[in-house]
Design a protein that fits this description.
Length: about 100
């Protein structure tokens, strides 16, 4: 059940950050050919979402989607620091003001 996943999710994440074979098994769900030797030791653990352009290149900045009337979607917030940045918030407010003709 989802309650069990929520309760133990943090424990599983912590275990994967120190037991590389566990992390490898999880990553192989997305990249089956990945091997233990492909994983690099880092002092920072975790995986973050990253938007990829149709060309295959990484998208380095926010993407705005205005295709749904009355909605402004902000995609690909590449850093937790950026998502809380007042400058980025100001940019989003300015964009929303234009889109919604406020």
């Amino acid at each position: 059940s989802s309650g069990i996943n929520a309760e133990y999710g943090g424990v599983s994440e912590a275990a994967r950050s120190i037991a590389w074979p566990l992390q490898l098994r999880e990553l192989q769900r997305f990249i089956p050919s990945l091997a233990l030797g492909d994983i690099v030791n880092s002092k920072i653990a975790g995986v973050r979402a990253q938007a990829i352009a149709p060309s295959g290149s990484l998208v380095d900045d926010f993407q705005f989607d205005e295709t749904c009337p009355g909605m402004l979607h902000v995609r690909n917030a590449p850093s937790p620091a950026a998502t809380s940045s007042l400058a980025i918030a100001d940019h989003i407010v300015n964009r929303a003001t234009t889109v919604f003709k406020m």
